[in-house]
Amino acid sequence: MEHAKSGPSSWPELADVVPVPHDDGPSPVVPIAYRDDFREVMDYFRALYVTGERSPRALRLTAEAIELNPGNYTVWHFRRLILEALDFDLLEEMKFVGKIAECNPKNYQIWHHKRWLAEKLGPDIANKEHEFTMKILAIDAKNYHAWSHRQWVLQALGGWETELEYCNQLLKEDVFNNSAWNQRYFVITRSPLLGGLTVVRDSEVDYTIEAILANPQNESPWRYLKGLYKGENNLLVDDERISGVCFKVLKNDWTCVFALSLLLDLLCTGLQLSDELKSTLEPIRSSHPETADADPATVVCCILQKCDPLRVNYWSWFKATLSQIS
Amino acid sequence: MQNFEGLHHVAFFDAIAMELPGEYASQEVNHLTLAYFAVGGLSLLRELDRINKDEITKWVLSFQVHPEANDDIDVGLFYGFCGSRSTQFPLPNVKDPCRNVSHLASTYSALAILKIIGYDLANIDFKTLLLSLKKLQQPDGSFMPTHIGAETDLRFVYCAAAICSMLDDWTGMDMLKAKEYILNCQSYDGGFGMVPGSESHGGGTFCAVAALHLMGFIQVDLASNIRDSSSINICMLLEWCLQRQVTNGGFQGRRNKPSDTCYAFWAQVLYYAVLTLRESGHKAVYAAVERPLQFAQTAAIMEILHGLVGLVRSPVSATLPQIGSRLFLTWGVLWSFPETQSHLLVTTLVISWSITEIIRYSFFGMKEAFGFVRTKTRVWG
Q1: Which ranges carry the Prenyltransferase alpha-alpha toroid domain (chain B) (predicted)?
Q2: pLDDT the model gives residue A28
Q3: Is the CB of residue B35 less than 8 Å from the CB of residue B57?
Q4: ipTM of the complex as predicted
């Protein structure tokens, strides 16, 4: 991005402007020892702001101020007023803010400015915005601002067609990326093209179980799986694939906290264990004599107390509430 | 054995209260919030007498925006507090109608400072503040932080609730609409995203639960009401919060991300949820880690001081708010509320801070020694 090699005091177009100095007011607390270039730019900005000037030189000055401090929302606001007054090419402005966003990908004001522009440019800009967030996410696949912007663009301007596929791609690259799992949930619940959660639930359960079996220590798909039946716990219990994946994982590793936790949820929601499944718990019972006559939910709590020591107090409390209910 | 170097921390806050280096220019719009950290920190270290309360009161109040004689309050301008001089244009000849850009977060910081130093908030024109606060509330219940347009998310719902709570006057917001927005932010996994549909996030979850609590929609010890489904899904919230503590003892802000000490603060939402767990014997754990914690906190201070004098490349503007807020929070709990020392949350908080700082310095050490650090491990996400 082109920027002035010297401060505004040397710009010919600002020769007639009298800079307005910064005034910290009475007895400032935590005053900042501003560098000279910062002070100079803000003094000139103040001068143009108070006169309400809407001109190309004012626009250039805001660019300078933004480069020094992209977090100043007053400068961004002034810039927007100028852009409107000059009927500036908003596609050019999108390019400008894009370059700044790449250097400051976690700055709220920049993303807000992009949203303001996108609102004005309409659905035609949707694809470009999705390309942009994809670029940011390629550097940091969990950038919260990028995801928020992407979700907003989808809902306001469209572009749902390839979003599920994008989630697939991100999860192939990193199946632990919880932002991608969240986006997947966003797509299957809100996309106008997929028919809604109940329509895709079946295939999503299969997809998620495959991810779980590949990496049972990855918490994301476990939570996603439960989320597929959000508000419909009876259906969660009735779907044999759910309890099935718990036991499949536990057969290999009975200390898998996520499998135990989901199993506990199912048992508390009324899952009745078949004799075959009960027998899966037997080896675990025998190595935990204190669970000899306990119901399956209590057995699971006991195991969790042992293999999830960071949360031992929680599982103890949970076990206690089980006996209160029964 | 290291002692907690309280005097170093006091000197640190004293120093920043006097002046911040030029690198802080990027934090200029958050000037009032930085002051809040300094004042809050000194207060928690029982050293508030070092500052001149009258001068600070005058300085903070000078940021308040008052309506002009012919201002129409219904137009929608917010009459709160500006966060800095660069967003405040008190000059009478300002043509721009948006000269007054007070902000919800600055207003929160201003009121918090005033409360800490004992100023009677009844003396400020809070009626106009609250009337105009309500105008910032959006149709979906969220809040815009300024009237010139900005992002709306849970942070500002929390700010609004905190402002009303400090002023003890809830005419500034439609609480039911705010609650509706918060509920819409609860994700499929029990945590709260910053906006509806967003990934569950430690900061968002804190803002949601704290705001609901301040508004009176949930009570302390909500774990005892865990089967109450009239508001948020408490069971899932509880599990989400608890699962955010990772093997190194620290708290992550989101699933499968690295732990960060700031999330030990946001996780204090657990305080409300797990009050019933206080009997489980945390005193021994706290006593065991007190020394490492104090050592780690001292090291954290040195990071700031080394950055200030240029010994390391750590950006002071980034580390100051982080470490300042950590000190504020830790000592706020430990010093102000000694009865919480045995609480599970404080115990896990101090453990996580110690261990997390050790990992952070290992990261910096590797970077300095080898020029790189391996990032493709699950610890670093």
Answers
A1: 8-270
A2: 79
A3: no
A4: 0.94
Nearest CA-CA partner of A115 in A151, A86, A68, A88: A151
Higher-pLDDT residue of B262 and B244 is B244
CA separation for the pair B211, B194 (Å, rounded) = 13
Asked if A317 is an interface residue toward chain B (Cβ–Cβ < 8 A), one would say yes
Beta bridge partners of residue B137, listed in sequence order: B143
Out of B58, B274, B280, name the one closest to residue A26 (CB): B58
Q: In this structure, is the dihedral angle defined by the CA atoms of residues B128, B131, B134 and B135, taken in order, positive or negative?
A: negative
A142 catalytically annotated: no
pLDDT at B93: 57
Residue among A5, A95, A99, A106 flagged as catalytic:
A106
Q: What is the CA B63 to chain-centroid distance, rounded?
A: 20
pLDDT value for B321: 62
For an interface test with B, the pick among A39, A82, A236, A314 (most B C-beta atoms closer than 10 Å) comes out as A314
Q: How confident is the model at residue A325 (pLDDT cuts 50, 70, 90)?
A: low
Distance (Å, whole) CA A190 – CA A271: 30
Q: Residues of A numbered 207-236 whose beta carbons fall under 8 angstroms of chain B's beta carbons: which are they? A: 218-220, 223-224, 226-227, 230
Interface test with A, best of B151, B228, B282, B344 (most A CBs within 10 A): B151
| Residues in chain A within 8 Å Cβ distance of B31 | 30, 32
SS (H, E, C) A130-160: HHHHHHHHHHCCCCHHHHHHHHHHHHHHCCH
| pLDDT tens-place string over residues A191-228 | 999 999 999 999 999 999 999 999 999 999 999 999 99
Q: Which CATH class is domain B1-173?
A: mainly alpha
Domain positions in chain B: 1-173, 176-241, 244-371
For residues B345 and B351, give the distance between their C-alpha atoms in angstroms, rounded to a whole number: 10
Per the CB < 8 A criterion, the answer to whether B368 and B306 are in contact is: no
Place of tokens 């992550």: B252
Interchain pair A31, B19: CB under 8 A: yes
Considering only CB atoms, B28 lies closest to which of A27, A69, A151, namely: A69
Q: What is the CA radius of gyration of chain A?
A: 28
Would you place residue A42 in the very low, low, confident or very high pLDDT band (cuts 50, 70, 90)?
very high
Q: How far A279 CA sits from the closest chain B CA (Å)? A: 28
Tens of pLDDT, residues A152-199: 999 999 999 999 999 999 999 999 999 999 999 999 999 999 999 999
Whether A44 contacts chain B with CB within 8 A: no
What is the pLDDT at residue B365? Answer: 43
Give the residue from chain B lying closest to A109, CA to CA: B150
